[in-house]
Specification:
This protein is α/β, with parallel strands linked by helices. 40% of the residues lie in helices and 16% in strands. It has 15 helices and ten strands. The protein has a ten-stranded mixed sheet, sandwiched between helices. Helix 3 crosses helix 5. It is globular, with a radius of gyration of 19 Å.
């Protein structure tokens, strides 16, 4: 992993981490992380065995949002933390500095929102976008009130149980009392424990407050994203707190004739965090997506289990009445996958 520090206009210097061997015909995947995370958020997924064929054929360029690196020092008191829009627009400096012609964007949560803004502003440099748990709306009233409490505590108390619980809910979509009912309960509890330990030991709470605040003040992207001309893969877990907003964003985009055939929406059943709880399903969906871009034509597919054909044909009138967006609902159990 090669680390570079790149000046990004008014946003200032941004740390970037390049994973993979660069070449003249490289395929670059461009990532931005979520709240309470850094570029290592994607490490386990990228290194998953199902991702090896893709990993061997691609270069990953990871962006660290200012002040969110592991063990980061306090941002200067004079530093004006950028808006989500300014962050997204400024990322073009990274591509220019690294002499990257075009990228595939891959982000989760707040990172997905930032990359959506980047793709809308610099569509000529984007081949496709993969957005997990992406919300296209402004913050609602309850989210705003909750975030203001969290921000105050991060500023005056530092990392604390309330902030921790909020960030766990943001990423894993359920209260800790319900984690025992998850499909992979023990694995999920360990992942959450590791996340909490990272928050307590290595995340700068004052810097995190600024990132949370910028996310709270985000503007809507629902109207902008409909102008994208590249393929889109929108993904959410059924139990994610952003499941409804991701679904709404997919439906909004699908209503626009110019882009509706470019949109894929996938909801993975019985999980909140798709990358952590269902990496095999995410890897398969991602592989299908990049094959559609012509990136991975030589990779053999390893499929998740499919339902009988009769099951695929059985759809309610409510489903038939929905916009003809390519939609799949995935689960790891007997309910399998339905598609329309």
């Amino acid at each position: 992993m090669e680390q570079k520090t790149i000046k990004c206009g008014d946003v200032g210097e941004i740390n970037v981490y390049v994973q993979g061997n660069r070449s003249s015909n490289e395929k670059v995947i461009f990532t931005v992380h979520d709240l309470g995370c850094n570029y290592l958020q994607y490490d386990d997924f990228i290194n998953h065995e199902r991702m090896q064929p893709i990993r061997d054929r691609t270069v990953w360029v990871h962006v660290a949002v200012p002040g969110q690196e592991t063990d980061a020092s306090d941002l200067p008191s004079t530093y004006s933390f950028p808006t989500m829009q300014k962050l997204g627009e400024s990322l073009i400096h990274i591509l220019d500095e690294l002499k990257i012609k075009e990228v595939l964007c891959f982000g989760e949560g707040a990172g997905a929102n930032i990359l959506a803004r980047f793709a809308c502003k610099h569509s000529d440099r984007v081949m496709g976008v993969v957005l997990l748990h992406c919300t296209g709306t402004t913050a609602g009233l309850m989210e705003s009130l909750k975030d203001k409490v969290i921000n105050w505590k991060l500023e005056h108390i530092g990392m604390n149980p309330t902030a921790e619980q909020y960030l766990v809910l943001h990423r894993f979509g359920s209260s800790s009392s319900k984690f025992n009912t998850a499909e992979n309960a023990e694995q999920l509890k360990q992942v959450i424990a590791n996340f909490q330990e990272e928050l307590r030991q290595h995340v700068n709470p004052k810097n995190l407050k600024k990132f949370v605040e910028a996310f709270l003040k985000r503007t809507s992207i629902a109207d902008k994203i409909t102008h994208l001309k590249c393929p889109m893969l929108l993904v959410t877990g059924q139990k994610s707190v952003f499941s409804g907003t991701t679904n709404s964003l997919a439906q909004t985009v699908s209503r626009h004739a110019s882009v509706k055939d470019l949109v894929n929406f996938i909801e993975v059943k019985r999980v909140a965090n798709v990358l952590e709880e269902a990496p095999e399903k995410m890897a398969e969906s991602f592989q299908y997506f990049i094959q559609g871009l012509g990136w991975a034509s030589g990779i053999p597919m390893v499929h998740v289990e499919r339902p009988p054909k009769s099951r695929l044909r059985s759809m309610s009138m409510e489903v038939y009445d929905q916009p003809k967006l390519r939609l799949r609902s995935m689960s790891g159990g007997e309910n399998d996958i339905s598609q329309m």
